[in-house]
Design a protein that fits this description.
It is built from nine helices and seven strands, in the order H-H-E-H-H-E-H-E-E-E-H-H-E-H-E-H. It has 277 residues and is α/β, with parallel strands linked by helices. It has a single domain (7-276), classed as Thiamin diphosphate (ThDP)-binding fold, Pyr/PP domains (Rossmann fold, 3-Layer(aba) Sandwich), CATH 3.40.50. Helix 5 links the parallel strand 2 and strand 3 (176-182). Its cofactor is thiamine diphosphate. Belongs to the transketolase family. It comes from Anaeroselena agilis.
Amino acid sequence: MSTQLTPEILAELAKRATAVRKNIIEMVTAAKSGHPGGSLSAADILVTLYFAVMRVDPHAPADPERDRFVLSKGHAAPVLYATLAERGFFSHSELCTLRQIDSRLQGHPDMKSVPGVDMSTGSLGQGLSAANGMALAGRVDGKDWRVYALLGDGELEEGQIWEAAMLAAHYKLDNLTAFVDYNGLQIDGPVSEVMSPLPIPEKWRAFGWHVLEIDGHDYNAIYDAIETAKTVKGKPTMIVAKTVKGKGVCSMEGIADWHGKAPSSEECVKFLAELCG
């Protein structure tokens, strides 16, 4: 199937994604720590989910009928926080408290304190298992809500991911759609050199998943893949999204050093200018 977004919606998503990226840069700079590269690469996926796909209500974040989202690569918390704030779950002004003492915006998402966070994540490899549990519970309860999860490509080096992959296929969790943010880089360099998970699409197909490969910065492609996943029966869907680390800021794009390094105040000004330009 091919599902296209209207020009108006595309413009709105682009506007929201720019705002999310701006907030990622500013909040990580203010915190003097964090993970900007993989947050920027995932911004278009989260914006599409939260503004064009998912059934969520900022005024009722615990609504039992909502769709669920699990950020399995929990170190990319800045993109989740910035998206939730943009969607209205809490004030933008709170973003500048990232990683500060007594802030609820910890370095990794905390479901007990942050509205809109469906699962606490941080130890890589565990998020997909949690998403499996949610999807299985929804099916047992006869609910029509869906579960979405975002994995990092470096995270695929964790063995628990593949245990979860087997379980999801075994139980035919077709209400589960996951993404791999395939930007090709992790903290120590290219994923292909650190501990290669390649070929990624073929592995997921071998584990019994329906697999789609897309440009992770193309809103139409992201939306179409999600809508296609809704039609797949008897299998979970993995969307392998090819992305660029640090997307949106030319000086950060494709550079592994920006995986877990905060910009200086001077760099922040430069990067925001690049983003707006």
